[in-house]
Amino acid sequence: MRILLIEDDHSLAEGITTALRHAGYAVDHTPSGSKGVSLAVAAQPDLVVLDLGLPDMDGLAVLRSLRGQQIKTPVLILTARDDLPSKVQGLDAGADDYLTKPFAVDELLARLRALERRGASGGSAEVVIGDVVINLATHSVSHGGNPVRLSRREFSLLRALAERPGHILSREQLEDKLYSWGESVASNTVDVHIHNLRKKISSDFIHTIRGVGYKLGPSR
């Protein structure tokens, strides 16, 4: 999952970015509200974490701009404004959740997982494909009832495929789910992760569609 973080506090943004990447998310950060709007419209990330007190554009204006352009990406407001009117304004402007500073990282991650589940699997924490169970809340995977240990990026790639079972995702689409903008990506990175997933789960769980990409489910 790719998250756009719009936050002007550099040290806080750095800490959030580190925590989110450790949890398996690809994170892109900008301190600018106007640039955040441009990035959200152009790349349409899976989730947006939005501060309200931005230097160039109030966060509520950012949110209204996104919703006005029919950008339906889930938005979590992260702000020091803890009064009830501000919360009501944020939610009425189109935010999906509202978390006040200071906050616990575990709570931020839990709220993001809830938004992710709501958008990807109708509120269910689990995606079941055959005898493989992918738990989005715990970032765990089991095959035939046996736990499967995956790296952070292996799980992220598997999740991207599991969210659209039967659909083909290109190498470029999978890279977009795994890496932040501007991050160096080796040409065979996705192939290596696919190989590892097949080895750890099942050789016929992920199918290569030659010249197109990869998908889960039946090969035909």
Walk me through what this model shows:
The chain has 220 residues and is α/β, with parallel strands linked by helices. Helix content is 41%, strand content 21%. The protein has helices at residues 10-22, 33-43, 59-68, 84-92, 105-120, 152-162, 171-178, 189-200; strands spanning 2-6, 26-30, 47-50, 75-79, 97-100, 126-129, 132-135, 140-143, 146-148, 206-209, 213-216. The strands form three sheets. Strands 2-1-3-4-5 form a five-stranded parallel sheet, sandwiched between helices. Strand 4 (75-79), helix 4 and strand 5 form a beta-alpha-beta unit. The longest helix is centred in the middle third of the chain and has 16 residues, at 105-120. The mean pLDDT is 87.
Topology:
Elements: E1 2-6, H1 10-22, E2 26-30, H2 33-43, E3 47-50, H3 59-68, E4 75-79, H4 84-92, E5 97-100, H5 105-120, E6 126-129, E7 132-135, E8 140-143, E9 146-148, H6 152-162, H7 171-178, H8 189-200, E10 206-209, E11 213-216
Parallel strand pairs: 1-2, 1-3, 3-4, 4-5
Antiparallel strand pairs: 6-7, 7-8, 8-9, 10-11
What is the structural class? alpha/beta
Mean pLDDT: 87
List how many beta strands DSSP finds. 11
Sheet bearing the most strands, described?
5 strands, parallel
Shape: elongated
DSSP helical segment count: 8
What kind of assembly state do the chains in view correspond to?
single chain
Gyration radius over CA: 18 Å
Classify the helix fraction into a percent range: 40-55%
Order of helices and strands: EHEHEHEHEHEEEEHHHEE
Please list the strands of the largest sheet in the order they lie side by side. 2-1-3-4-5
Share of residues in strands:
15-25%
